[in-house]
Specification:
Blueprint (H helix, E strand, L loop, with lengths): L1 H14 L4 H8 L3 E5 L4 E3 L7 E7 L1 E7 L5 E8 L3 E2 L2 H6 L6 E4 L3 E7 H10 L1 H27 L2 H11 L3 H4 L2 H8 L3 H10 L3
Antiparallel strand pairs: 1-8, 2-7, 3-6, 3-8, 4-5, 4-7
């Protein structure tokens, strides 16, 4: 999957460029992996062993409880990293599910291997820290949107951030992600000119 490694290198370079030697060692960690549509890659209660780089497909991280309440937390698609990141970095049991919404192709690297490089290569540690910082910034932005914005404002922010998302993700999951009833979500789509 040489094209996938090129895409991975482009994403890594956007966060924190690596020297040729560090990139060579980092790139060796990544192995091809694929999953069918609606496949649970990581289940609640499992340890997250891998960091994923999405090559093809759409996935989501979601929460599901014993009262059948579901909350879609994040979508992943090319070119982005995926997985249940808190469980990965803390090496604890996941509180969430990581599921494919479409057939998906990934590169994945084991956390154990990444951790070894983080401990021996400062540039890899900086890269991972930069990635975590960007993720945390996105979480804070999303919390503000959920707590302060109207349904319409949340919808408009999503379209501003990811204008192509309506074509990638089934609308029922987008409605759940935004905390909007599916019927109201349909009304929003029809009301707002896209």
């Amino acid at each position: 999957m040489p094209d996938a490694l090129i895409q991975l290198k482009q994403l890594v370079s956007a966060f924190s460029p690596l020297s040729d030697t560090d990139w060579e060692d980092f790139s060796k960690l990544w192995k091809p992996f694929s999953a069918k549509r609606k496949e649970i890659i990581t289940a609640m209660g499992e340890k997250e062993k891998y960091l994923y780089f999405v090559v093809e497909g759409v996935q989501r991280v979601y929460y599901f409880d014993e009262q059948n309440r579901e909350a879609t937390l994040v979508f992943t698609y090319n070119p982005s990293f995926g997985g249940v990141l808190d469980a990965l970095l803390l090496q604890t049991e996941s509180r969430y599910f990581y599921e494919t919404l479409t057939p998906s192709v990934f590169l994945r690297a084991s956390f154990a291997d990444i951790q070894v490089l983080m401990q021996t290569r400062q540039s890899i540690e900086i890269l991972i820290r930069q990635g975590i910082t960007h993720t945390l910034s996105g979480v804070f932005t999303r919390l503000v949107e959920l707590q302060c914005y109207s349904s319409e404002e949340r919808f408009m922010q999503l379209l501003k951030r990811s204008p192509h998302i309506l074509q990638l993700v089934p609308h029922k999951y987008l409605a759940n992600y935004l905390g909007i009833d599916a019927t109201n979500f349909s009304k929003l789509i029809n009301k707002i000119r896209i």
